[in-house]
Every structure is written in structure tokens, then in C-alpha cells.
Amino acid sequence: MIKKRFFDLFFTIPALILLAPFFLIISICIKLDSQGPVFFRQIRIGQHGNNFNILKFRTMQFNTEKEDQLTVGADKRITKTGKWLRHYKLDELPQLFNVLKGEMSIVGPRPEVPRYIKLYPKQSRKLILSVLPGITDLASIEFKNENEILGHSINPEKTYIEKILPKKIKYYEKYVIKHSLLMDLKIMFYTLVAIFSK
């Protein structure tokens, strides 16, 4: 775990320094586009089942976000800047601060809201929550167009719970069992490929 922490800091600290001007530009765009704070915080379940506030750039009209509601397709609450940020996954960048604080890792199972964690099989939940959640993982690459998929569903909530979540859990388990620093590097690379190939 010490190696994993060093790995995270090795990439996170330089990334935050290099991205600082970009963070400023995004922040200005968000403030000019709509009223409200630059960042959005939401309770997620982290390692060992501990709650933490995940940090994202705000992509929706202020005070329209529901704590655990799925955001799908062309949701009318999403701002113009938010659409662009979501398309390129740039809204996730502030999670580098979560990594810096030790609440997340760059690569690891994506942290879920409490109500979805309750749906995990008991053994799966124990295994997945034994490690730090990540900004990206195998499931993030596989379901890079998740919002669009759910947007075409008559019942997005049911589709997520019955079709997507079980597959995500399998990917999470695979990562926890087989993960290595080399695997992390590969996932980081393929995440960038997935984002820029959109």
C-alpha cells in the first residue's frame, strides 16, 4: 500500500501544479455560465465503508442536484459548460484533491453513493471496500458512455441496477484481486484513449 500511495502522489502533485491554470479557466467558465459554487460535493462510500465527500466541478444548475439521483442523457439541469466538462470527463479532475487527502486513489473501484453500495453482494462489498476507491478503473473505460446508455432507457434506475451495476461489480472485483502498478498504468493510458476518442 505504501507503493500505491507513492504512485498516487507521484502523479497527483505534478498534475495539480500543471493543471492549476486549467482549473482556473474552468472555474471562471462555470461562474460565468450559472450561479452557484464552482465545486460539487457528494457523499460516497470509501475504503472500509467510510463516508467521504467526493469533489467534482459543478455541471448542473445550483440546488437542482439530488444527492443520489442518476444523471442521464440530455438532463435539462446540466449547464452548457457542464455538458462540455462531462463529455471529456473534466468534471472529475477535482478528485485529484481527494487523492491528495488519501481518500481516493488514481486507479481503483469507482466510489458509489450509499444506496448502491447496499445492493452489492456481501462478499463483493467486503472485497471492493478493502481498497481505496479511484478516479478511474476498468468499469469507467467499459462504460465511458454510461450517461448516454441510461438516457436511452425507459427506466434508467432499473437499467443501472439490473444491467450495469452487476457488471461494474465484476470489474471492481477483478481489479482488487489482480491489481498492480503496471495494471494501474495501463488503466490510466486506456482511460485517456477512451476520453480523447469520444
Domains counted in the coordinates: how many? 1
Amino-to-carboxy terminus distance? 33 Å
Q: Round the mean pLDDT to the nearest integer and report it.
A: 93
Give me the number of helical elements. Answer: 9
Oligomer: single chain
Q: What percentage of residues falls in helices of 4 or more residues?
A: 40-55%
Number of strands: 4
Tell the overall outline. Answer: globular
**What is the succession of H and E elements?**
HEEHHEHHEHHHH
Q: Identify low-pLDDT runs.
A: none
Rg from Cα: 16 Å
Biggest sheet features: 2 strands, antiparallel
Percent in strands: 5-15%
- Class by SSE composition: mainly alpha
Task: Provide a concise account of the structure shown.
The chain is mostly helical and 198 residues long.
Can you give keywords for this protein?
54% helix; 198 residues; two-stranded parallel sheet; single chain; globular
Protein architecture, described:
With 198 residues, this protein is mainly alpha-helical. It has one domain. 54% of the residues lie in helices and 10% in strands. It is built from 9 helices and 4 strands, in the order H-E-E-H-H-E-H-H-E-H-H-H-H. The chain has helices at residues 2-33, 80-87, 95-100, 114-117, 122-128, 138-142, 146-151, 156-178, 181-196, and strands at residues 39-45, 51-57, 105-107, 134-136. The strands form 2 sheets. A two-stranded antiparallel sheet has the order 1-2. It has a two-stranded parallel sheet with strand order 3-4. A hairpin with a 5-residue loop joins strand 1 (39-45) and strand 2. It starts with a helix and ends with a helix. The relative contact order is 0.14.
